[in-house]
Specification:
Blueprint (H helix, E strand, L loop, with lengths): L3 H7 L36 H9 L10 H12 L7 H9 L4 H4 L4 H4 L9 H22 L7 H4 L11 H4 L7 H16 L4 H17 L5 H19 L2 H19 L7 H8 L5
Length: about 280
Amino acid sequence: MASISALAAAALLAACSSTPFGAPVASSVSAPAAMSAPTHEGGYLSADRIEALAQAVPAPSAEGSAEQAADRAQSDRYRAYEGGDRWLLATAHAELSPRLAAQHFDCALGVRFASAPTPRLTALFDKVLKDANGAAELAKTRAFRPRPVGVDPARAACTNVSAAGRASASYPSGSATVGVAYGEAVAVLDPAHGAAAREIGHQIAVSRVVCGMHYPADAAAGEVLGRAVFAQIAATPAFQADLEAARGELAAVRATGLTNPGCAAERAALALPLP
């Protein structure tokens, strides 16, 4: 069976952090001084719609609550995957830039997106990214919850994370929001493979928990938000026009007959049981 490293190389992954694995360390993390609302432009949705979507996100569980304790305990169980195949797949999923993110869906669609130019799909992903991330970042300004890698400075992250990144807000997960919105977009792009595309969107969210960048509840809230954002995106005429253009590009990609050589490794990683 192919090594997951083949998938990592094919997906142009960043190197894993060399931060050592350590036991939980007590840490008091407070909200950054600047938690101002981000500006929003360039997506499919208006600022008012983004605001409404962000406002609909429920608050995170209260500090010291049983729900928070259970969430942290589950997060700690994900430490067992550090350095393994699912961890390395999570490093791939951390790349969500519009130009490269389509490649996460290669195996779901049975194609190789890098085999032909896809500027219209990249532009579509860029707008989805701006809407999904914009809603998540706005929601984060309402209540600060620290990241697992912020609460425990010794916890490894599967990508290089600055001190500011460790201290940034965790709820809801912006990467989960974006990943799920991408998955919904790809499912509409190729309905015959819609279920598989949505599963990859979900797995991108799971990867953030594997990475120690978010708690399970952060990722779950991000998934709900991502679906809500995309539901509104899909209703816009601009998205429908871009979708038709992107379908033409997908047809050209499929016509090359190429597939991603890392798919066996991806299947193996996704088959691993999670806590």
